[in-house]
Amino acid sequence: MSTTTRARGVEAFEHVIINVLKLDKTSQLWRALEDDGFITISDITTLTDGEINALQYEDVGTDGNIAMKAVMKKQRKLLTHLLSWRDWTSRQLNKFDANDWLELTEDDFNRFRENQLPDLIR
Question: Are 23 and 75 in contact (CB under 8 A)?
Fold first, then answer.
């Protein structure tokens, strides 16, 4: 993967997490993905449902002890829905690349979740 491609992948990853899912670098999902080395959009698109459900992050308790905790279900579901959006959209297009991720808006994603996703889940 070239540096430019990798940079676009990181940019797309950050755009999707921050602007579409409305999570930040301190969120459980971001921390778990980063801890596992998933920092580009192509990294997360290869995740299986089982891998998404197994995501964990390090949590430092008030006593200073570090424990591994599962990422909250809502954040894991957002990632699963995001990959469903990618699958649904890629079937509509002849190609799918980082630009499609960068053009995704929170409103477009929410419309997908409200209108298309329920039928896909059933």
Answer: yes
